[in-house]
Each structure stands twice: as structure tokens, then as C-alpha cells.
Amino acid sequence: MVDAIVTGGSFGLEDAPMTRDRSAGWAYFRSFGDVFEAGGSWYLTSAEAVQYAQQHPDLFSSARAFDSLGSPLPLVPIAMDPPEHVRYRRVLDPMLAPRVINAMDDELRRQLGILIDGFVDRGSCDGVADLAHLYPTQVFLTLFGMPLEDRDQFIEWAEFIIEHTGAAELEPNEQVVAVAGALFGYLQQFVDAKRHAPGDDMLSRILALSGEDAWTNEEVLGLCFLLTLAGLDTVTAEIGFLLFHLARDADLRRRVVLDPTLTAPLIEEVIRLEPPAPIQPRITTTEVEVAGVRIPAGKLVNIVVGAANRDPARFSSPNEINLESSDRGHFGFGGGIHRCLGSHLARRELRLALEEFHKRIPDYELAVGADPVVVWPSGTLHLTDLPLVFTAHGPS
Amino acid sequence: MRVTIDAQRCTGHGRCYVVAPALFTDDERGFGQVIADGEVTSKHEEMARAVVLACPEQAIICSDS
Hints:
The complex is a heterodimer of chains A (396) and B (65). With 396 residues, chain A is of the alpha+beta class.
């Protein structure tokens, strides 16, 4: 075992130049090494180190790592270790498998059509506010059998909680507790109603689990809470990044619009380059050695997938969209046993959104003077707005 | 040439049946399954090599036997 103490020296999370250029931002992380320590926590930035941590949940625990979110409920299943984790995933994976999602395609396309037709005759839109911001919550409400009319209220609650929780907050403040209470109250209504009168939706299917598989009320609410935190703003962020890269690169846009089979490879590349959840926390359960560096027990370890996704040891064009080599096993959906539960749904949401957008708006670009930026540091990396212009025509 | 999935490493990313639909299919959990005995015909050899690289967990094994 190597005994070197590797310190990140002057590393500061807030110093990463992420705002306008994630290539520079993640290069900043990589410049401190594959594995380094800064401010009492550790950072893994290479593909090898990230994969090692993801594939060794016995050494890198998730159970304590999500405490900073201050959830009063069990965060099922992200904050679980084996064997509890296995029990939840065995039940949840089939509910979000591709063959189940297939059944949602037509309804999601219909909803996208309505959203896009809402601005198609304006000749301009904000790709974030008018589409990316609204659609993922509609998908969640559809999946869980809740009314689309509640979308805006739901978004307001979820955004408030996401903005006011995370590593920056030492403990949940009173306002967050109040808003979380309102969200839980809303969700509880549906849990109660669907227990008595199940519908054809994921929430009803979870509530119908019986015997050893049955979930407590707290577990059900915990899952709803997690999907709200993990499944909405991440997809919002990624739609924003996809439209951003397409809008600023006319050649890329034309290629993808002319050949829709390139949509899926494009999505993989943009998730690789712009992962919306770029850093995942773990706590070491014992002293471990990663890429030749020793990390003591009980330390917070940040798995920096944003940096590992640009590791030249694994990716031949680390900082560029390359549709020809788009399948090189990126870490955008995490990895190991905690591989994003919603990865299949997220990919489908993104593909349908791009297909329906391009059907109606095949050519578009950034509005003059637009300067899309991300907020940093931030738990979910996302563009704050995305002003687009295009040739206006009537709704299809 | 033959492909197999290392079940210890596979966590259900589902890339194999997207990248190499002639060799893999999805199961009810969204995990990949080898079609038949995983035998790779000469016309799918390139696909087999691509899927080894595509698996985020490096769980696909491509052997010469």
C-alpha cells in the first residue's frame, strides 16, 4: 500500500471555472490528480478511481452519505447499502424497465406536442422555462397517476426544496421543512386514495406489494421524495444542455435533424459531457486504497463523474461531442449497484423531447446576445435559461 | 467468438441490447440477456467488439471460443 498523502493544495470547489465552459471546469478537477484530498473530503476524478468506488459499495457506503439532504424519510433506495438496497431495487427496476416505459410513449409525445405547440408560432422560446422546466414533472405525474393540473404547484415545491438543500446547508431550515411538509401532505393524499382504489400507475403498483415485499408508508413517501429530488431537475437540466449544444452548432443540428438515428448517440455524448448530477457522495467504511492513494475510514468521498467522463484514458475525444464513438461506457448515470434507477426513463424522455421538438422546429439557434450559464457550485448542474429563436409557423 | 455477461458486474445499464440488438435482449428488469448461447457470427463480430466498450461496468466478455 502506498503511504503518500495526496492533498489538493489550493483546490476549492467554488473555484472550478464551470459557469460557461464545463471543459475548463472539469479540467480544473482533473488537474489536482486522480484522487486527492481537500478540506477534509476526498475527490475521485479518473475513470479508474470512479469505477472502483462505484463497484465497491462495501467500502464506499451510501447509507450515511446523503445525510446533508436532511430528509426526514428514508431516501429509498439511493441512501441504502446492501442488503436493504437489493430488496428495493428488485421491486423498482421492473417498474422502470424499457418494456414498461414503451407503454408511455404515445402519451408523452402527446404532452410534448401540446407544450411545443404553445410556442411554435412565436418564433422564439426559452428552451428551459418553456419546455425543459415543465415536461419532466408532467412525466412524473403521469408515471405516478397524479393530475397534470398540479404541475406548477408541484414544481414550486420541488424547486424550493432542491434549491435550499444539499451540501451547502448545515441543517434543513424551517422554510424547507414547511415546504417539504406541504409536498408530503400532497403525496400522502394520493397514497391514501390509491391504497383503496388502485390505478394503472407506478405508485399503485408499489402500494399493491404485499407480504414480505410490502412497503411502509414512510418508505413510499421516501421514494416519492427521492424521485422528486432526482428525477425532475436532472432531466430538466439535460434537455437544456441538449438544446444548447444543438443550438450553437449548426452542423451538429443539421446532422441530427436529417438523421434521427443520431439522436440517441447525441444524448449519450451530451450526458457524458454535461452530467446533471456530476458528483455523488460516499463514506468510506474502512481504510481503502484507490489508484495507489490511501483514504482513511469514515471520510466523505466525492465521486466526480463529471471529471471521469472526460478522462482521456477512456474517451478518445474527451471534451468533444463525437457521435461516431458515443458508446464508451460513460458514468453519467452513475454506476455499480446505484446505477440511476430512472436511466431508461430519462433516456426515453430526452429522445422523445428532441424528436417532437425537431418535428416542429427543425432549425433554431441561440438568440442574439444569449449567454447561457450554469450556477456553480450546485448539486444539479443546469443552465438557468436558454433563449432560442427560429422561424415561426402555426401549430402542427 | 462468443459473448457472455459477468452477472457480478452487470447492474442493468441496458446498453448491450441497444448497441448490439443481434446479440442481447432486455429482461423484465431492464437488464441485458445474451440471446441463445451468445455465439457471434462473422457478420456481428464488429458489433461484439463495440458492445464490450459500450458497457459502463465492463461486464461484457467476448471470448474466442
